[in-house]
């Protein structure tokens, strides 16, 4: 009782004591978006309390969703460490993306400069711009924290608190919650580095619209130098897709908040350029075009595919993703799941929800089959996944063959279950078994799915995902009352399917 009273009086007398103690365990960052110079921003931080003589500071080489080095350390310069006495501490640049900080236990502040990763979407730069950041002082900041914020290899999995100085008229659009400290300062917190990097932010004078999809708040935030009040048009356009995705996923979305961050740059050039990167609770979309009228339709597909990533890898993922190494990551062998099943849902949802008819569905399948034929048929999908960094020329097959794997798996599950179970059900069960904070072991997933479903499914994975047997498209589509001509690539619904085919087709696509 005496100890409890001591704690009580300590909290009364020193109300900020608990906060101060907690802050020592965090990375405390300061980012200045007001005093920019030559498209560079100043970043500084206090590392968590530690007893390290040396520490390796890392800015990511790679980020989830890309399979080529992006080397964000190339934009960082003037790394300086100061100890508690105000004296400089020795720092060594080890390579493009890492620095060795001496006497880390006594370091009070580390500061550095970060350069704009792209000045214009018209200009070619190495790597994908949707994973980088741009700083336009008086108009907009597109921020991916992997290009501004780092971590110490020896001090991982610590919370982050970031204070951001910004134009008083700017608003932070993000899946994270930004708190207003005063007119020119926002505060944001993340539970760890992975959570922070997974949550980009768009800072600008707000053009935002909120949608309510079931219990999920969806933010649509738009920036263009000239066009204003355009977010509502986009939101109205994608609302139907999101509502149908909710129904397809069982009537409830597994996230409370989601953000579409859309940067549109006008151009005199013909054509339409798009670049995007999905995150667990948000999507960054970058567009360049001379005709903004193309934008709503371009966003349809992005909204559908990227939004489905709230299932995987957010709620279904391996340890390689849960404990992602931003300097030297190990690749998971389950791109058939992360991208293939996501793209399959993008095709399957509209036909299942009666947003499209069978002729349009047939055309979608024909496009995927034709695309698959452009890649190496002798490369297994697990090998492609594990070696995605080295097999860039084959990577795009995850969006071609990947969804066709999903299609065949769906039909096989429907066949074995008498129409009762398909990939929609499988993904829900996997999500319930694992979830956001629990990962599966990469080598165990096929066996786990087999336990959940049927023994024959293990043979399916062995033959068509781990192995290189051609997908049984002709055989499986025939089960659901479709013909597939592997010479012409045509997929056609039978005019007079038999009762068994009708039942399977109805269970599979609802038509």
At a glance:
The chain is α+β, with helices and mostly antiparallel strands and 511 residues long. Helix content is 32%, strand content 26%.
Output the CATH homologous superfamily of the largest domain: Neutral Protease Domain 2
CATH topology of the largest domain: Neutral Protease, domain 2
The number of distinct helices, counting runs of at least 4 residues, comes to 15
What oligomeric assembly is this protein in? single chain
CATH architecture of the largest domain: Orthogonal Bundle
- Give the rounded overall mean pLDDT: 92
Q: How many structural domains can be distinguished in the coordinates?
A: 3
Derived from helix and strand composition plus strand pairing, the structural class reads alpha+beta
Detail the topology: elements first, then pairings.
Elements: H1 2-13, H2 17-23, E1 27-37, E2 40-46, E3 54-58, E4 76-83, E5 88-89, E6 91-95, E7 98-102, E8 107-115, E9 134-136, E10 140-143, E11 151-152, E12 160-165, E13 171-174, E14 178-182, E15 185-190, H3 193-197, E16 201-204, E17 208-213, E18 216-223, H4 231-248, E19 257-266, E20 272-278, E21 282-289, H5 295-307, H6 319-322, H7 335-352, H8 358-372, H9 381-386, H10 401-416, H11 423-433, H12 445-452, H13 455-464, H14 473-479, E22 482-485, E23 490-493, H15 499-509
Parallel strand pairs: 1-12, 18-19, 19-21
Antiparallel strand pairs: 1-2, 2-8, 3-7, 3-11, 4-5, 4-8, 6-7, 9-10, 10-16, 12-15, 13-16, 14-15, 17-18, 20-21, 22-23
